[in-house]
Design a protein that fits this description.
Layout lengths: L20 H24 L6 H28 L3 H22 L2 H9 L7 H17 L5 H27 L3 E4 L10 H6 L8 E4 L2 H10 L3 H11 L6 H19 L5 H6 L7 H33 L8 H4 L6 H10 L4 H6 L3 H16 L2 E4 L11 E7 L2 E9 L11 E6 L9 E5 L16 H19 L19 H11 L2 H7 L11 H10 L4 H18 L9 H12 L16 H4 L6 H12 L1 H6 L5 H12 L7 H9 L6 H7 L22
Parallel strand pairs: 5-7
Antiparallel strand pairs: 1-2, 3-4, 4-5, 6-7
This protein binds zinc ion.
Length: 681
């Protein structure tokens, strides 16, 4: 007889976000010590293992350490005080060391094997299988000397990954300008928030709210060229040696386990299974997008020559690389009637956020309400509780403003795992959308930020809706990692849907809503540059696979990245760029950056029922999607979830049609701006 479990809440237990560095370290150590004692007791228990006496306590103690790792990892990424970030990092590394040792625990492994899995439900059986596979892949079946070395390597890989990550967060670079006229072409709100400093000079940083608009709008080609150079040299040169060390550690780890490469090791438990299949998949996509990407480039050069007759070529500074490019924005404005700068005026942060919340209510029946009394890590953070009718779903946090030392990309961080009978799931979106110099109440987003917001929210919905299963190894965090970008890339589609954009795009200064005709033009222009974007994703994916492939005969990571770009991207990278030094995915995603491309193939097919219905706000399809894809977490292999939702296996065709679709020029060219006819957007 078990005691009735307490109601599930979004508690942080003894680890609030407000602990000092010392208190965090102490409480982290205490939690790990208690988990180690409990694990030893389970390993030594003489009675045959059962779900109630073995698997449940094991799952709960692993969850408590996983939560500690997530908590420490979040504070490492976001806390404004350096000592707390450092304590977060060491706490999360200590938790990861616990997991590395757990995976090599032969007594626990044997007990998991002795659990009678015959009469168990399939989700439980699958969770046990995955735990045992994870332990085998860590080396639990190897002899004692090999296990000792594998443990050292795992710990060193975690610490080296964190060192790489920390160097990126610390590396913030600037371009200095001698006067406001160098900001010609940039939006008014941007120019207002980038006034000259005490010495009359203007500083533009590599943070996204500075970087992206400058790359898209600045007429000054020299500014774009210099800023992109600074952006691609973040964490350079310090991370070159760190990356070389990380690659070598992972190669040794894979070799000891009998794999030809770390890529072979890392892909074995993914949907795609082998580096050979991943490489063939990337070649297939590369062949699809190569010609249209080259056509995009020719079109950009033609446009550039209107301004600069005889210009020899498009440069990376014209492309933006990781932002919408300058000439692409010109073409969108002039040929498609979609000016991203005018669009920005209609995209204040708060209404975009509120419309996204309202959309979740309509699609999935989720109510999202602010938490009033939460103690958070910075005054700019927002906390929200999510419910579905009477049922509590979980809690999330939004951290949207760049800060010194903060993680400077965009990601959804796990905060607490959700388990039936245990804690509710909690996640945090860590983004860098809002210019810290502007008032958050009126801060404007780039349209690409809105797409990123929806993307990360897709991850968040997956984490919250799946956090109600019985076992840690059935949660979303245990799903195949080449599936994880499918729910996020799918959710981006709502940010591109005219019916959805109409809800939030409104200029708060004038009250004017985004005109309908311009919504249609946006939809038409959306395909412009798509092939180039995916050619770049293929280049990065090929680089990530090659970097972790068999040792590269002395080729530096820099050379590998340049070679992949030269082969697949529309334009080679400049030798002066060292993006490999700030490419954060090389730690967590390692060899499987191809995930973005593979998941997009799945996401395009997941959209097909909505496309058949002719609308994205079809409640019945949305609910089926939430029920079959999001809520099950990893109770079954991802391919089975997709099959349950689609009623068939997923196919490549939808992606192929989409990635090659031409942009649609509007029926009539936009009329020049006048009070009666809004100008290009
Ligand atoms: Zn993502």
């Amino acid at each position: 007889v078990t005691a009735p479990s307490p109601p599930r809440t979004s508690t942080l237990d003894e680890l609030p976000f407000t602990l000092t560095a010392e208190a965090l370290a102490e409480r982290g150590q205490a939690r790990i010590a208690s988990a180690e004692r409990a694990l030893a007791a389970l390993a030594d228990a003489p009675a045959p293992p059962t779900l109630a006496t073995f698997l449940e306590p094991l799952d709960r103690l692993l969850t408590s350490v996983r939560d500690l790792s997530a908590h420490g990892g979040l504070l490492f990424a976001v806390h404004p005080e350096e000592p707390v970030r450092a304590s977060g990092r060491s706490t999360s590394e200590a938790a990861d060391r616990f997991f590395n040792a757990f995976r090599l625990n032969g007594a626990i492994y044997a007990k998991l094997g002795a659990l009678r899995t015959g009469p168990l439900d399939p989700a439980t059986r699958f969770a046990i299988e995955k735990m045992r596979r994870e332990m085998r892949r860590a080396g639990v079946e190897h002899d004692a000397p090999a296990r000792a070395r594998l443990l050292e390597l795992s710990n060193a890989i975690d610490a080296t990954s964190n060192e790489f990550t920390e160097n990126i967060a610390r590396s913030r670079r600037f371009v200095e300008l001698d006067g406001p006229d160098r900001l010609a072409g940039l939006p008014d709100d941007y120019r207002r928030s980038h006034g000259p400093g005490p010495e009359g000079r203007i500083r533009i940083s590599t943070d996204y709210p500075d970087f992206r608009p400058a790359m898209t709008y600045a007429d000054d080609a020299e500014l774009r060229r210099r800023l992109l150079l600074e952006f691609t040299r973040r964490a350079y040169p310090e991370n070159e040696a760190v990356l070389a060390r990380l690659l070598a550690l992972r190669q040794e780890f894979a070799t000891l386990l009998g794999y030809p490469s770390y890529a072979a090791y890392a892909l074995e438990d993914k949907m795609i299974e082998t580096p050979e299949r991943a490489a063939a998949f990337l070649e297939r996509v590369s062949a699809l997008v190569h010609a249209p990407a080259q056509a995009d480039l020719a079109r950009l050069l033609e446009r550039k020559r209107k301004d600069l007759p005889g210009a020899p070529a498009i440069e990376n500074g014209d492309l933006g690389l990781f932002a919408e490019g300058y000439y692409a924005a010109k073409i969108k404005s002039e040929e498609f009637g979609v000016d991203p700068k005018r669009l920005r005026a209609y995209l204040p942060y708060a209404p975009v956020r509120d419309a996204l919340f309202a959309l979740c209510q309509e699609l999935f029946g989720l109510a999202i309400r602010p938490v009033q009394d939460a103690a958070l890590w910075h005054p700019s953070i927002e906390a929200y509780d999510v419910t579905a009718g009477e049922r509590a779903i979980g809690r999330f946090y939004l951290d949207m403003v760049p800060r010194e030392g903060k993680y400077n990309h965009a990601a959804c961080f796990g905060v607490r795992e959700g388990l039936l009978g245990g804690n509710l799931p909690q996640s945090a979106l860590v983004c860098n959308f809002i210019d810290p110099a502007s008032d958050p109440a009126t801060a404007r987003l780039e349209y690409t930020d809105v797409v990123t917001f929806f993307h990360e929210f897709g991850h968040l919905l997956h984490a919250l809706l799946s956090g109600h299963g019985r076992w840690l190894y059935n949660s979303q965090s245990s799903i195949e990692w080449d599936f994880v970008e499918a729910p996020s890339q799918l959710f981006e589609e709502w940010a591109r849907d005219p019916a959805t954009v109409r809800r939030f795009a409104r200029d708060p200064d004038t009250g004017e809503a985004l005109p309908e005709t311009l919504l249609e033009r946006m939809r038409g222009a959306e395909a412009f540059g798509r092939a180039s974007r995916w050619a770049r994703q293929v280049a990065l994916a090929a680089a990530s696979l090659d970097l972790y492939g068999p040792p590269t005969n002395g080729h530096s990571p820099h050379a590998v990245l340049l070679a992949a770009y030269a082969r697949h991207a529309p334009l080679p990278l400049d030798d002066a760029y060292h993006f490999e030094a700030s490419w954060g995915h090389l730690t967590g995603y390692s060899a499987f950056y191809y995930t973005y491309v593979w998941s997009m193939v799945i996401a395009r097919d997941l959209l097909s029922p909505f496309e058949t219905a002719g609308r994205l706000d079809d409640r019945a399809i949305a609910e089926r999607y939430a029920r079959e894809i999001l809520a099950p977490g990893s109770e079954r292999p991802a391919a089975e979830l997709v099959k349950a939702y689609l009623g068939r296996e997923f196919q490549f065709d939808a992606f192929e049609r989409w990635v090659r679709a031409p942009a649609l020029v509007p029926r009539a060219r936009p009329a020049p701006a006048s009070p009666a006819t809004p100008g290009p957007l």
